[in-house]
Every structure is written in C-alpha cells, then in structure tokens.
Amino acid sequence: TSKEPVRNLKLYDQQLTAAPEDLFKLTAVERLSLRKNAIAALPTSFAALTKLYWLDLGQNSLAGLDPAFGKLAALQTLYLSDNAITALPPEIGALARLTYLNLDHNRLTALPPEITRLQNLRWLRLNDNQLQQLPPDIGKLANSLQRLYLKNNRITEQEKTRLTNLLPRCEIQF
After folding, report:
1. pLDDT of 19-57, one tens digit each?
2. DSSP output for 110-162
3. Sign of the Cα pseudo-torsion (58, 125, 89, 160, in order)
4. Mean per-residue pLDDT over the chain, rounded
5. Which of 14, 34, 102, 138 sits 20 to 30 Å CA-CA off 58?
6. Radius of gyration, CA atoms only, the chain
7. Bridging pattern class, strands 77-79 and 100-102
C-alpha cells in the first residue's frame, strides 16, 4: 500500500534549536507549525516546501529570514510573532498569496518597501516592535488591507495621520 504524504505537521514545543533536515523532504506539507522552539535560523532548503500555505514559526529565536523564503509562493498565512527579527528580506514581497502576516513582538525598526507588493494582504500585525513609520508606498495596500496593528511601536502622530489617510478602509490600531 502507498503511504499518504504528510500534509499537516506540528512540531510544537519540542526544544528544537534547528528545523530537522528531513523536514525539507516532506514536500507535500501544506500546514507546518514549529511554534515554541528555540530555532535561530532556517536553512535555504526550507524553500523546498513549495506547497506550504500555512506556517507558524512563532515563539522561536529567529533574528531574520533567509531570502529563499520568497520562494514559498503558496504561503497564505505566516506567523512570525515572538521572535527577535530585526529586518525582513526584500523577497518577502514575492509572497503574492499572503493574506495574514503576524510579526508581533519582534525587533523590527523598518519594513522593506517590497511589503507593498503583497496585494492580497488583509491582516498585518506589527504590535510591539520598534517601528517609527511604514514604507512610503504603504497606500498600495489600501484595497486589500483590512486590519493593521501597530500598538507599542514608536509611530509619530504625523505618521499616524499619514497612515489613516493612505488606508481609509483599514482598521488601524495604534
């Protein structure tokens, strides 16, 4: 009998310091949780998981993302909350199907301008970072973005006004 390919994999709270190499051979995986581990980085081979549409990397020790992340073209939901991410690679803009992005509780000081390419993004969570402003072209997301969370950042009053004007249909929480 043929084995059914693994499509849903939860490696929650396993004290992992790295993603297991065999994981990248499971190319049929569509949902993957590596939440609550101690993973500091993901290898380029992560890009082999091309069917992945839901990914939870929350509560790890990630300082950033490999540019190969941009090859996860099927990704729709991405949890990166509670890490130590200081910057996102420009390749984040290649995740055209992304609808939900959670970057709460990181160390972001800026977002790459390529974030405005995410034309299907509906929810963007950026609470508890060190952001002062969002990219100048953030208004390109006005037709898709429904919720923007910016609590506990360093957003100026001027920037709050700019964002409110550029994203009139978006519910923004400062």
Report:
1. 998 998 999 999 999 999 999 999 999 999 999 999 999
2. ---GGGGG-TT--EEE--SS--S---TTGGGGTTT--EEE-TTS---HHHHHH
3. negative
4. 96
5. 138
6. 16
7. parallel
Three-point CA angle 71, 163, 86, nearest 5°: 45
Report the distance separating Cα 167 and Cα 148, nearest Å.
9
Q: Which residues contact 16 (CB under 8 A, 6 or more apart)?
A: 34, 37, 38, 39
pLDDT digits (tens, 9 = 90+) for 60-96: 999 999 999 999 999 999 999 999 999 999 999 999 9
pTM for this prediction: 0.96
Note the residue count of the chain: 174
Locate 88 and state its tokens: 């996102």
Residue 152 in tokens = 């506990």
pLDDT computed for residue 2 by the predictor: 58
pLDDT surpasses 60 at 1: no
Cβ atoms of 39 and 62 closer than 8 Å:
yes
Map tokens 């569509």 to a residue. Answer: 30
**Interatomic CA distance for residues 98 and 132, integer angstroms:** 24
